[in-house]
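Q: What would this chain look like folded?
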Amino acid sequence: MKRRTFLAKGAGALAASTAFPRFSIGKSGPSPNSKVNIAFIGSGGWIARQPYEQGCKDENLVAFCDVDRNHCAENMKNWRTTQPFFDDYRVMLDKMHKQIDAVVVSTPDHTHFPATMAAMERGIHVYTQKPLAHNIWQTRTLLKAKERYKVITQMGNQGHAGRGIRKSVEAFRAGVIGEVAEVYARNSGPEMGGRHFANPKTMPPPPSPVPKGLSWDLWVGPAAMRPFYTGYLPYRWRAFYDFGSGMLGDWGCHTFDTPVWALDLDPPAVVECLERKASLKGVIPAGSRLKYDFPAKGSRGPVTFYWFDGPQDWTKVGRIEKFGAEHAAHLGRACWMVGTKGMLGCGTHAGEPTILPDDLRASWKAAPPAQTIPRVSGGPFREWLRAIKGAGPEPGSNFSYSANLTEIILLGVLAQRFNTRIEWDAQNARITNHPELNVFVKEPVRKGWEYGEGLGA
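A: My prediction, written as C-alpha cells:
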C-alpha cells in the first residue's frame, strides 16, 4: 500500500471517530510497511538520541542535519546511518522535502522557530523540542502556521504524555483539593560551571577560533553575528539570553505543565521579578524569584503563581505552611498547587501527583476520580507518529497548547532578564509599562532567516 493511500484511509477513519481535523501527509512515493519518512534537524547528543530511541528508529530515517559534525559524530557512528547528511536544513528541505513526511527539531532554542516554520511551510509534520520558540511573536506565529498548514505538531515537554499529569488534572477537575489560588514552582538550577550553564568572565566573551566541522554562521542562524566562543558549545548556550532562555526555558515547560493544563491558564496580566542574582549583561542569573498574576477565567478565580530558581533560603521565601507543607520545596516536589481543601504536588516533569494532607491523600487513593482523559501509550514521539498515520488523536502538546505554555514561560524570561515588572496586554501582544522591551517580543533577525512574516501580526 502506498503511503498516501494508507495515511488518507487512516486519517479518514480518525476523523470519523474524533473531533480532530483530518490530517494526511499528501506526499508521493512508496514507504515500506507504511512507515513515516523522518528527518532530524539537530542530530547530536542526547537530545537527538531521545527521539531516535523512543520511536523514530522504527520508522524510515531519510536524512540528518546538524551544523556541528563533531557533536553528532558519535550518534552517526552508533546509528550506522548512510542517509544523506546536511549542514543546512534549508538545503535539506529544498532538496528532499518530497521525500520527508516529518521532522524532529532538536536545535538550540533560538533556531527552533525558523527550522519549524521551514518544515511546516512545506507541509511537513513537526516535533519541536521545548521551549517551542525564543520569543512570543514566534510562538503565536507557529500557532497560526499550524492552523494554516494543517500538519501534526508536538512540543517536547514529554511529561504531558504521561499518566501522572492526567491523574493530577483529573484530581483537580474532580474538586479533590478545592479551588486553587496559589501555585509554587521551583528548580534548584542552574548549576553554573556544570554541563549546561556557565558564566563567561566578560561580556562579550573572548573570541576563539572556529573548530573544524562547525558551521558557525549556520549555528548563529537568525541571531546577530558575533565571534565564536568555546563556552557556547555544546550545551552552555542556555546561559545566554540571545540563544537560550535560562532555567525557565529549560525546565519551565515541564514544571508549569500541570498547573497550566489543570487551571486552564492563559498568559498572565502581570509577571514581576521579585529578586535576581547579579549577572553580566545578556547572561542568566544564578537564581531568581518571579511572581505571575493570572486573571480569573470562567468559574476559576485569579491565580498567583511563584517561580523560584537557584538555591533559596526556604525559611524566608516560598512559605506555604498549609496542610502540613512548609514551603515550595516540601517533600522535594517541584510544583505545588494550593487549594482550599488540600494541595497537589508534582515533579519537575509533571509525573505522579502527591496529595496533602494525609487523610485527603488516603481518600483520593481509595476512591480516585474517573479517568476522563485518555492515556497515551509509548510516550510523546509515538503519540505524534500515531497521529501522523491517522491511528491516534492529535498530540496533547500540539502547538495549540504548547504555544500558550511557551508564551507564559517567555514572559517570565523577560521579567527575569530585565529584573522588572511586566504588564502584559495579551490581546495585542504588547508590554504596556515598558514599551522599550517590545523589541524582545518580536526579535530582529538576520537577513535570510525571516520566516512567518505573512502569518504573524
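The domain at 163-375+405-440 is CATH 3.30.360.10 (Dihydrodipicolinate Reductase; domain 2).
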